[in-house]
Design brief:
Helix content: 40-55%
Structural class: alpha/beta
CATH superfamily: P-loop containing nucleotide triphosphate hydrolases
Number of helices: 7
Largest sheet: 5 strands, parallel
Number of domains: 1
CATH architecture: 3-Layer(aba) Sandwich
Strand order of the largest sheet: 2-5-1-6-7
Shape: globular
Order of helices and strands: EHEHHEEEHEHHEH
Radius of gyration: 17 Å
Number of strands: 7
Length: 210
């Protein structure tokens, strides 16, 4: 197998990064040539902390992530080795016991807040994408998602957004867009941009088969 192509998708919280990654995965599901790795699964383990302390963690700061482990895993996949990817338990605010086996493939889609902010990650990307979605839309999406899927209260989501999410976005995430090769407005709703990505990935897969 040829060296995989690594595509990084960054952007603010609830900007549509995951939607784009999932749509790409669905298109290529039968070929099994594309794998998605979510930065969120590399949140640091907090088993040693009581729940009260876990809830105080700033999850929108780069220090909340185990970047070294992620880099090691990307390098392993690049060298043709399988990995045991961690998974994250949002309800209990720590790493879950279950892992997911990821095998080498043609295209790795890495999506997450700081994919373009972290230099170690950025240097390993062959294509850098930033998803640009208005702040009010991102907030509404995050509010609905965290209450519905992550066991949060409306009050806690609003407080977290005001105290950390908005501040960290302006400090770390928004400036990282300058590193992007492609900027996609409106995330998963931008059909034209997704079709262009599909075409590019298809050409990569076809060239690796030949």
């Amino acid at each position: 197998m040829s060296k995989p192509i690594i595509i990084g998708i960054a952007g603010g919280s609830a900007s549509g990064k995951t939607s784009i990654a999932k749509r790409l995965k669905n298109v290529f599901e039968e070929s099994q040539s594309v794998v998605i790795i979510r930065l969120d699964d590399y949140y640091k383990c907090q088993d040693h902390l009581p729940m009260e302390e876990r809830t105080k963690t700033n999850y929108d700061h780069p220090f909340a992530f185990d970047m070294d482990l992620l880099v090691d895993h990307l390098d392993a996949l690049t060298n043709g080795q399988s990995i045991e990817k961690p998974t994250y338990d949002y309800v209990n605010h720590t790493r879950a016991k279950e892992t997911e086996t990821i095998h080498p493939c043609d295209v790795i889609v890495l999506e997450g807040l700081f994919v373009l902010e972290d230099e170690m990650l950025r240097s390993r990307l062959d294509m850098k994408i930033f998803v640009d979605t208005d702040a009010d839309i991102r907030f509404i999406r995050r509010l609905k998602r965290d209450v519905r899927d992550r066991g949060r209260t409306l009050e806690s989501v609003v407080e977290q957004y005001i105290q950390t999410v908005r501040v960290m976005h302006n400090l770390f995430i928004e400036p990282s867009r300058r590193h992007a090769d492609i900027i996609i407005p409106e995330g998963g709703h931008n059909v034209v941009a997704i079709d262009l990505l599909v075409t590019k990935i298809s050409s990569i897969i076809d060239s690796n088969v030949l």
